[in-house]
């Protein structure tokens, strides 16, 4: 009798204390749940063992990355209805120990144990990072960056498209092209920094060189770009040479903490500060402050999260930490501004472009799905699944205001108080 889906649905609803918002298709071909709902496919019993050994987000992620759990139909729809149950519980979530005090929960867990088969825990997928230091030493940061970025430039070309910009684009219209939106974002950063010919720009976390090339080619500045990724640096240097800009752009494999050749007229930090960590943020801000000349500007482009009522309860997202950005941390925008001010900066403008990141991520997901076989070949099936899940879930998080992204413009204002800012601060538009 094929009834695994019906039994699984009943147990899950007993465990959750609420109706299951998706349809379940089990390994025996059975289905149960609302007929018009998105379908969550439990491909084997191993998926249950993963969830039992690591309840919550990490168990779900392991099952997804290993291919034990998948979706039939619209991935966004499944993630949207499952988010509140698995990913969005935040500081109000019950611990497993608290939940098991409920007899109904204990009964449901034992029912799942019987369905799951042999009790041995499955090995984590090989794509998982098995470390939890969060110390943000130069060595650990280098390893974290390598895990995320050194997965092959060809893979990133599929996802990011010709612009090779891995940060939120700046859209004029949802119907625009990704390449135009990324060009407009680089131009927005350059205008906020008031780049002019002859200036020196430090691009912290320069990626594949797009900002450096745009600034040198369009604004006539000299640029030093630093990254911890060997693969990014090699790709960026090749692009710089092809553009004929080797006399104006230097790409280094270097930690920003080791840059000593200031002062610079301007600094761009686009999508890099998320790697710094809360304990190191003031050090980051002070280092960049010291590298600027008086009157120099910093444009800090950074993802932020919603503040928690009890900030001490905040923990790094398990899936992101294990599979995407090891040691990555998000902070509320208030903490970012306070850190920059504590370092000596005068914060002159804060612009939220949250909706723009949802649009950007959906284009990246579409790029990945459109060339899925090639992406799998260039990396691994598990790595491609990581990126599909991560980007789709992140798109929804931005769209639902669970996280945001902000551009903070700060000035190293001298003692004279002359900031060099225009009277109408938004003139860069």
| Residues in β-strands, percent | 15-25%
Quote the average pLDDT: 89
Binned, the helix content reads 40-55%
Span between N and C termini?
65 Å
Radius of gyration: 23 Å
Report the principal-axis shape. elongated
Task: Provide the fold topology.
Layout: H1 4-16, E1 23-25, E2 31-32, E3 39-42, H2 45-53, H3 57-66, E4 69-72, H4 75-86, H5 96-99, H6 103-116, H7 138-149, H8 153-160, H9 178-193, E5 200-204, H10 210-219, E6 222-227, H11 230-242, E7 249-253, E8 264-270, H12 281-291, E9 292-305, H13 318-324, H14 333-342, E10 346-352, H15 354-370, H16 372-378, H17 381-399, E11 403-411
Parallel strand pairs: 1-3, 5-6, 5-8, 6-7, 8-9
Antiparallel strand pairs: 1-2, 3-4, 9-11, 10-11
Describe the structure.
The chain has 429 residues and is α/β, with parallel strands linked by helices. Helix content is 45%, strand content 15%. It has a seven-stranded mixed β-sheet with strand order 7-6-5-8-9-11-10. The chain has a four-stranded mixed β-sheet with strand order 2-1-3-4. It is elongated.
């Amino acid at each position: 009798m094929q009834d695994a889906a019906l039994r699984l649905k009943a147990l899950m609803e007993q465990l959750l204390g609420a109706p299951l918002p998706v349809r379940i298709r089990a390994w025996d071909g059975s289905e149960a749940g609302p007929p018009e709902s998105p379908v969550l496919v439990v491909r084997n019993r191993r998926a249950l063992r993963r969830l039992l050994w690591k309840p919550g987000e990490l168990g779900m992620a392991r099952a997804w990355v290993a291919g034990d759990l998948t979706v039939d139909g619209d991935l966004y729809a499944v993630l949207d209805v499952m988010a509140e149950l698995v990913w969005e519980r935040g500081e109000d979530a019950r611990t497993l120990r608290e939940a098991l005090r409920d007899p109904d929960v204990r009964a449901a867990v034992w029912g799942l144990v019987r369905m799951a088969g042999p009790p041995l825990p499955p090995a984590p997928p090989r794509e998982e990072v098995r470390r939890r230091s969060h110390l943000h030493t130069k060595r650990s940061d280098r390893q974290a960056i390598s895990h995320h970025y050194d997965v092959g430039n060809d893979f990133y070309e599929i996802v990011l498209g010709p612009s090779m910009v891995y940060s939120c684009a700046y859209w004029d219209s949802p119907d625009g092209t990704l390449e135009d939106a990324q060009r407009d974002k680089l131009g927005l950063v350059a205008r906020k920094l008031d780049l002019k010919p002859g200036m020196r720009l430090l691009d912290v976390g320069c990626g594949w060189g797009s900002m450096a090339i745009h600034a040198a080619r369009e604004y006539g500045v000299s640029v030093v770009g630093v990254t911890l990724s060997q693969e990014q640096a090699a790709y960026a240097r090749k692009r710089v040479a092809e553009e004929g800009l080797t006399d104006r752009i230097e790409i280094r494999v270097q930690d920003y903490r080791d840059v000593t050749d200031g002062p610079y007229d301007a600094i761009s930090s686009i999508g890099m500060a998320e790697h710094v960590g809360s304990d190191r943020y003031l050090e980051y801000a002070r280092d960049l402050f010291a590298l600027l000349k008086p009157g120099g500007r910093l444009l800090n482009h950074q993802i932020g999260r919603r503040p928690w009522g009890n900030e001490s309860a905040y923990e790094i997202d398990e899936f992101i930490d294990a599979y995407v950005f090891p040691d990555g941390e998000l902070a509320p925008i208030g903490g970012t501004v306070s850190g920059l001010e504590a370092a000596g900066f005068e914060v002159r403008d804060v612009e939220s472009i949250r909706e723009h990141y949802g649009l950007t991520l959906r284009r990246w997901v579409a790029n990945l799905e459109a060339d899925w076989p090639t992406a799998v070949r260039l990396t691994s099936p598990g790595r491609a699944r990581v990126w599909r899940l991560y980007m789709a879930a992140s798109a929804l998080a931005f769209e639902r205001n669970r996280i945001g992204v902000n551009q903070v413009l700060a000035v190293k204002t001298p003692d004279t108080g002359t900031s060099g800012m225009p009277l109408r601060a938004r003139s860069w538009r």
